[in-house]
Amino acid sequence: MIKGMKTLGLKRKILEVKDLHVHFYTYAGVVKAISGVSFEIYEGETFCLVGETGCGKSVTSRAITKLIESPGKIVKGQVLFYRDGSPIDLLKLSDEELRRIRGREIAYIFQDPTAALDPLYSVGYQIAETMVAHNTATWKEAFRRAVDILKSVLIPDPEKRVKNYPHELSGGMKQRVVIGISLSNKPKLLIADEPTTAVDVTIQAQILDLLRKLRQEEKMTLLLITHNMGVVAEMCDRVAVMYAGKIVEIGTVHQIFKNPQHPYTKGLLKAVPNPLIKIEKLESIPGTVPNLIFPPSGCRFHPRCPRKLDICDKKEPPLIEVEEGHKVACWLYVK
Amino acid sequence: MPEPLVRVENLKKYFPIKGIFFTRAHVKAVDGVSFEIYRGETLGLVGESGCGKSTTGRLLIRLLEPTAGHVYFEGKNIFKLKGEELKRFRRKAQIILQDPYSSLNPRMTIFEIINEALEVHNIKVPDKEEFIVDWLRRVGLERHHLYRYPHEFSGGQRQRIAIVRSLIIKPEFVVLDEPTSALDVSVQAQILDMLKEFQRELNLTYLFISHDLGVVKYMSDRIAVMYLGKIVELAPADELFEKPLHPYTQMLLSSIPIPDPEYALKKPKVKVIGEPPSPINPPPGCRFHPRCPRKLDICDKKEPPLIEVERDHYVACWLYAKK
Amino acid sequence: MGSSIASKETYEKKILDRFSDKLVDSITNLIDKVKPGWSERNKSKIDEWKLMFYAFNRSPPGIIGAILIISFILIGLFGPYVAPYSYREFLYIEYPDTYLVPPGSTVTITNKRGDIVKVFNFPLGTDKYGRDLLSLILYGARVSLIVSLIVILLGVPVGILLGLVAGYFGGKVDEVIMRITDIFLAFPALILAIAFASVLPERIRPIIIQSGILKQVFSVFFAADVRDAANFAPILSVILAIILVWWPPYTRIIRGSVLSAKENLYVEAAKALGVSTWKILFKHILPNIISPVLVLITLDIGSVILMEASLSFLGLGAQDPMVDWGKIVYDGAQYFPDRWWLVIFPGLATFLAVLGWNLIGDTLRDVLDPRTRRSIEFKVKRGKAEEK
Q: B122 CA to chain A: closest CA distance, Å?
């Protein structure tokens, strides 16, 4: 059985992002960070947003629960969250209603665990606090459960560690505690934004293992944001490749890696040195990522594209399905 | 066997941690490493953060003074060089640093930055501006970039400028300290290929430091794996990946996420145990023993020597040593 | 009518901007004549200067500050020469009517026959010696200006140098320099000045009086009569006292900045190239940390003026017949509030000068911040694009 195929059969949506636009109003001009991003995530799967710095993957993940700070603004779009089968538009909820969903039904893990933990409180307190804040436990109960949570994120000596302060823990441990905090209310959807970028490979392997294990045990849906194609290959069921604020290709992990269609996806895969293969020369993508204040006309990848057509700099390509569950936004595939 | 360009002997670097009055302890960043680098090759140096790989790189071009040990460059001990001799060494041994956002002085134009290198080493060319523009063109920049400031460039462009600054004085040996870790993959490939190109053209010798095993494999002829200030394994690049001997190397290799979903399913898993201990108080014996899945009795008592188990394949592990 | 909306987004050049553009252009032309091709090579730098001026021009407090300090400097430089009377014209001796005359009055001197001999105009009144207060303030401005300049020119470089050395070399050097700095920081300036005032003038005085050159130099500096050479000593002792307590904050600030600036990889790259230590310090480190120091200097000039005035007010600075602003207030204080002008006008002068430097300092902080500048740069560019 090919990994990723199983999710095609399972069709219960948990999240649907429709035509999302986020702009940042900076002094230099309006940065169109994401323009017209649409995708859906199905229950129980691991969905990946992958792309390079500034492609809008992090902004997308934050926009889901309106975590966009000024000068950013969500200018258009819908984020439908399916609760017991019926959709609610998260972008239409009040801050208070969203706060109740955030942390309880949708939880986040960010790149830098040090910034996510308050240095003044013990980790046990911080885990308990989330439960109390969402009224899922009393303080006493929450403290007891904090130990179990630390145990579940594989922290050795959880009884002792629960009393530790963040500075007494290593980077990998802190990230586990953060994961523990986000899991304390058993969320339906966990959004992990580059959770292993700040840690070493061996620790990364541990954390990815942990996420994989927790996902199976808790039956959680995972939205993983990363720039590392290796992490995508190991973790995900379905992948969306983003470039310059748009999704250029979306499909199962197998489709993306074995049968990439978009020239950017192809370039990206060839640019990563795979240690298992003897590579004589890496293929690089010429040029640099475009400025999103004045994005290129038509397809945003056209200035760097090796297979540019006449139409590419004039009209934006639509995201069309090339095979079941595999969509590409490229004029090469539009008939 | 040819004479190595760089020979490192039992190099140590301890950083003091200051208490209120006295030095409280030492971070043993590099704790007795020995290796050789031959002319024209690329030696990769991999390891996780805090293993001492960057410190080793800086010691090799004498940006730091060692606590103990020697580095011989073309047969001369670099820590004994003074005055003109040291300057000549500086011209021959260069470094390209990790973060191009911080490695260029924001108050200097590109011309001033590159010209400084020429001036320090008294390199006389008929037309300096033409000479520098020529080099800029080789890395894909143009004449109109000459009098701009670093903030007007992207990360990839800045790294190219840093490369020109280091290579324009025609060095023989270059330490590449994670030159692409701050860059995106598509740009990383451009820089790596450019570095390979220059190596062929100028007959350079590289020490390539990185935590990214894929990149190291792509760049290196031989690879040394470091753990807590020591080299645990040293082997030709392909052999290291095909036949890793040290349990740490095995753990490291199995931890790399492979960009191939089919392989990801069937890849051998070495479970990662624990986390790297602090280099202030490294464990006795083999430093890896608390995390080692194949620990022997001797491991926590005696330090394993780095021995050649197969041709050109060195490993520091009691599993392969005759006690 | 789109222009009104556009003007919020773009930056239109105003008169001041055109003026500052011309100023920068003429300076660059001048440099170009000495070093041909300079402006071509430093285009980015020149643009940066222009942008700094644009940023400055958009700040009303900055403009007010600039007007104030330019007036202060002009008055300090030329005031003594345009003053209607000398500070040594004790009119009271000859004309008792000029004793403590209120502002705006005209004193008419008649002889015994009733003929008008002399008419004196005193726009700001006179002091107890019948000296013109306006003239005294103009002379006092010179002393304030010179004192603040000397303190900054001597004290700040010492502070910067020690800070650079301490921060860059670290270890024992750092330890020694910083402990000395701490000692000086702990010294109250006032007590030091008082202690100095009681000892130093006696030592300095003979040196000045005996040396013809020193006498001349300082009399030009303070725009004072050579006959007052003996009175230069207390002012110099005040300057020395202020310098001694003035450098330590600079050492601290610079040391702190150096500690973080030397971690920049470009410093390491320069070392690897073999660039000499002094070049690294002055070319790679100092230019990158100097902005906060420039801001501090402008703010500090105000403080030095204030400090000097307060020391003079305590009778430690200028001695009769020399004047500075603090001395005028000190002399006038005994007649306050009846003869208010003796306190209010010099006080106001001090206040405006200090305010001017503070406003400039605050604005400079914004102007030197590349982010404010960049935002204006984008607006200027957009303005240009729209013109096309």
A: 35
| Strand ranges across the sheet with A13-26 | A29-42, A13-26, A72-83, A86-89
For residue B126, what are its two tokens?
A: 């008929």
A238 neighbors A199 (Cβ within 8 angstroms): no
Tokens encoding C388: 């096309």
CA A199 to chain centre: 17
Q: What is the pLDDT of residues A101-142, one digit of tens each?
A: 888 899 999 888 888 888 899 999 998 988 888 888 888 898
All residues of chain C having their beta carbon less than 8 Å from the beta carbon of residue B86 are 274
Domain ranges of chain A: 1-103+194-201+221-297, 106-186
Domain ranges across chain C: 2-84+378-387, 90-130, 137-358
All residues of chain B having their beta carbon less than 8 Å from the beta carbon of residue A172 are: 275
- C279-320 confidence digits (pLDDT tens): 999 999 999 998 889 889 998 888 888 888 888 888 888 888
Cβ contacts from A onto C, under 8 A: 10
Residues with Cβ within 8 Å of residue A81, at least 6 apart in sequence: A14, A15, A87, A88, A89, A90, A101, A105, A106, A189
Q: How far apart are CA A173 and CA A193, in angstroms?
A: 17
Q: Do B192 and A282 touch (CB under 8 A)?
A: yes
Q: Quick one: A1-103+194-201+221-297 is in which CATH superfamily?
A: P-loop containing nucleotide triphosphate hydrolases (3.40.50.300)
In eight-state DSSP terms, residue B26 is E
Between positions 329 and 388 of C, the ones with CB within 8 A of B are 370
Q: Does domain C137-358 have CATH number 1.10.3470.10?
A: no
Q: Return the number of CB contacts < 8 Å for B and C.
A: 71
Buried b (16+ CB within 10 A) or exposed e, A101-111: bbbbbbbbbbb
Query: What is the interface pTM, i.e. ipTM, of the complex?
Result: 0.88
